[in-house]
Amino acid sequence: MVVLRRVIGAGLVVIVVAVVGTLLARLLSAGNERVSLTVTVAGRPAHVVEGTTLAEAAARFGLHPRAGDLLDVDGKLLRAASVPGKLLVDGRPAPEGMRLRRGDRITVVDGHDRREPLIRRVVHVAGGAPSDLQFTVSRTPGEQVIVSGTLSHELVSARFRASGAARVARAVALTFDDGPSPQFTPRILAALTQLRVRATFFVIGYLAEANPDLVRRELRLGMTVGNHSYNHPEVPPFDQLPPRLLGDEIALGGQILSRLGARPRLFRPPGGSSSPALVRAAAALGQRVVLWSVDPADWSPGSSAKEITKRVLSAVRPGSIVILHDGGGDRSATLAALPAIVRGIRHRGLHLVALTADTTTAQDATGNR
Ligand SMILES: [Zn+2]
């Protein structure tokens, strides 16, 4: 009996020890065990242990938001990878050290490419801008509103803002079309120089290409050289040419002038055939359309110097643009008429000017290009 009692006693002790040991072990291990949390990473469920920070989760799941680039106004790269991406938790920016909680949603947001900021400047245009070059020499007072990139200084837009009504100048512009002519242009230039007149020459591209020295001489003498198309097509009327051909004629004529050192800013369509679409096509190439308000028909066969002079002086008024020709045929009558025309215009208190596209162009104002 005694033996049996001892055996039972020892057994109880063993059982008690075992039970206590198990409980203790469980208690201890429960202290160390890290509970697993379910979170959503980039749209998929994932498990992290409790206490995991956002930075740790980013490293573990390879979450690397792409950085965006800083671009200039034309979309060219200014600074690579300078707009950082972000990790959001539940749709909100969160610090890297933030500990994740059950059900958190982590989203990766790449940095968007960003355009440089724009800067807007207003520049007073001294003397105003030409308001209606097509028919008259007049100027509108105002200022140029210039928008450009803050970092690249690239021009985005330049717009003239009028601050008052157009004022017709007490000036007249003599213009000469269809040259340069080796036979008449030098003589007309000599006559204008002697009369101290600056005029405007609308040259034909292929003739300018054939007589580059004459164009250079015009420029040297302070004349304005404008574009009168490359081929001077007349049939169909210039404004009815297929748009592509029309654009090519303006662009090609302009290129020849640029090559000879003249900035092609003014365009006179052959035959004066104009339309809103043509004005837009020329403007897209940086050229303004110039027509005229006085036409003495110096080109019509049999016109004498006296008749040409009379037709000019009877029609001329402040702001007039007079069309004459230094090319396209025998220009002796035009040449002979010049002194009387100039004297007659000056006698009315009007001065003679070469046309200009703009006093302050956007490019000049930004110091760009
Ligand atoms: Zn012409």
Characterize this entry briefly.
With about 375 residues, this protein is an alpha/beta fold.
Describe the structure.
The protein has 369 residues and is of the alpha/beta class. The chain contains ten helices and 19 strands. The strands form five sheets. It has a five-stranded mixed beta sheet, covered by helices on one side. A hairpin with a 5-residue loop joins strand 3 and strand 4. Helix 8 runs parallel beside helix 9. The C terminus is likely disordered. The site of zinc ion has 5 residues, from strand 13.
Number of alpha- plus pi-helical segments: 10
Q: Secondary-structure element order, as H and E?
A: HEEHEEEEEEEEEEEHEHHEHEHEHEHEH
On the 0-100 scale, what is the average pLDDT? 88
Number of strands: 19
User: Which secondary-structure class do the elements indicate?
Assistant: alpha/beta
Could you say which small molecules are bound to this protein?
A: zinc ion
Notable characteristics:
369 residues, alpha/beta, five-stranded parallel β-sheet, 10 helices, 19 strands, rod-shaped, disordered C terminus, binds zinc ion
